[in-house]
Amino acid sequence: MDVDATSPEKRAAGPAADHRYRHPLAARYASREMERIFAPSFRFGTWRRLWLALAEAQREAGLNIPASALAEMRAALDDIDLAAAAKYEQRFRHDVMAHVHVFGEAAPSARPFLHLGATSAFVADNTDIVQHRAAMALVRDRTAAAVEALARVAEEHRATATLAYTHFQPAQPTTVGKRASLWMQDLLLDLEDIGHRMRSLRLRGLRGTTGTQASFLQLCGGDHGKVAQLEAAVCRRLGFDSAYPVSGQTYPRKVDYAMLSCLAGVAASTSKMAHDIRLLAHLREVEEPFETEQVGSSAMPYKRNPMRSERICALARHVAVLAADPAHTAATQWLERTLDDSANKRLAVPDAYMATDAVLLLAANVAGGLRINTRVVASNLAAHLPFMALESVLMEASALGGDRQDLHERIRVHALEAARRATEGEDPGLVERIAADEALGTSAEEMRRLAEPGRLVGRAPEQVDEFLAEHVRPALLRAREARAEEQAASALWPSGATQDRGGGDPGEDVRV
After folding, report:
1. Tag placement on the chain: N or C end, fewer CB within 10 Å?
2. Entry pTM
């Protein structure tokens, strides 16, 4: 018997009998909060709010729309019969007209006035913009949560000296906190970009079939000023300051490219952090969260793979690739509009936001539970400290009147010989070699003094302090203030769309 996936029979049959594909982003990775923004209830609930805003503005402009019609529309905003809409769509092969009829049945007094003067892009494109804003706000909150978790790591380990790497080869020491600050710096740049994108986001507005507003000009009796007022009133009701100044049938498709490029930036930042953590986990210097009963390998019981960081890299790569979709779409739109954007947008835009959401949940989780193995960190650094002191030896010997180039060559020869001995399992003997070279004028005791970790990290601890005080905490405050403003206006949107935006707290929606 073939049963529907949502039927009691299908649920009772269990996962083995489920023959419907489930998108992994929704089933495994993204949060319920992000999923709701792209769910039918949010999308079609926003359509109804757009129709209500249009009818209210038209009534204000003098059109004969009765108050009872508006009241019925308000009462039915979230009472959406999706099954009935699906049946209408089967008949009409048109999703917008299907929902016009279903809304008209729920608000019969409004039926004669629904969608008056509008085209499908009025509800579809304006809803796309609303979804962009809601989803990007959630991305902002998730990004801030990841920064907040990293800030705790940076503050705790501001002065914990560690070996730095360039080309993944040992370089001058830094601190664990300074390294976490580098990760935060990337995410702060993302927060700036997110803020810019959200501030510049505008509605498609009231434009008609090709963007000329001809239908609305006719409704307003040829009064151009009244058309502008009508559009402004709709934008205001939807919580936007304005619409894009000109458009064809759709809003500029470069908007999708800009928003997904912003998400690709977040993906790049989190992927870089996760790659670093994977490298450091190999060195045993850090460990990501690992539950008591977690299994690292089905064949090797001892393994503690950095699987969360690996998943960040995998999903971030997907987000980066998706940014190319809207670029191609924007580049290939014909004249005032073609429909080859639609199917691509349905896939690329929700995927990009849900994958970014998943990445950021993981990033906050990893950063919040990151274990720094300070003894291993110190041990790895100690093995290289004599090499790290060589720049100081060069500086001091030069200050005493030596030829910098000659000194550099002598130190280079000593260092390479010591490194060769180390690779063959012998004592490198670098300190002794430097102390024995009279041209360098450095004793073994002085070498050890120059190799003290605290002398080699420069201003790293102070840089962390300044960065947290002057940049990180103000950025987190701005994110919290923006979130509070949006929550104050959240009653406008379909239920659940702007609620529970916490970034890193564990719970049902933190799929890590």
Report:
1. N
2. 0.87
pLDDT at 497: 40
| Ramachandran angles phi, psi of 78, nearest 5° | -115, 10
CB 198 within 8 A of CB 137: yes
Do the domain assignments include residue 113?
no
The answer to whether 96 and 124 have CB atoms below 8 angstroms apart is: yes
Does residue 394 sit within a domain? yes
Q: What is the CATH number of the domain that holds 411?
A: 1.10.40
> Structure tokens of 179?
């390294």
Helix (H) or strand (E) holding 423: helix 404-423
pLDDT exceeds 80 at position 299: no
Q: Which residue has the tokens 């564990």?
A: 506
Other Cβ atoms less than 10 A from the Cβ of 82: the count is 12
What confidence category does residue 498 fall into, taking pLDDT thresholds of 50, 70 and 90? very low
pLDDT in tens, 59-83: 999 999 999 999 999 999 999 999 9
Q: Residue 485: which pLDDT band, with cuts at 50, 70 and 90?
A: confident
- Compute the 3-state secondary structure of the chain and give helix, strand, coil in percent, each to the nearest 5: 65, 5, 30
**What does the H/E/C string look like for 368-394?**
HCCEECHHHHHHHHHCCHHHHCHHHHH
Helix, strand, or coil (residue 335)? coil
Q: Cα(340)–Cα(338) distance, rounded to whole angstroms?
A: 6
504 pLDDT above the threshold of 90: no
Residue 403 lies in a domain: yes
Residue 48 has pLDDT above 60, yes or no: yes
With respect to residue 432, please indicate whether it lies within any of the assigned structural domains: yes
Cβ–Cβ under 8 Å, residues 187 and 146: yes
Q: Is 446 helix (H, G, I), strand (E, B) or coil?
A: helix
Q: How far is Cα 253 from Cα 166, in angstroms, rounded to an integer?
A: 40
With 0-12 / 13-18 / 19 or more C-beta atoms within 10 angstroms meaning exposed / middle / buried, residue 488 is exposed
8 pLDDT more than 50: no
**Counted domains in the chain:** 1
Compute φ and ψ for 174, nearest 5 degrees.
-130, -160
| Alpha carbon distances (Å) from 487 to 180, 234, 480 | 31, 21, 11
Active site residues: 167, 297
Could you tell me the residue range of the domain that residue 436 belongs to? 390-450
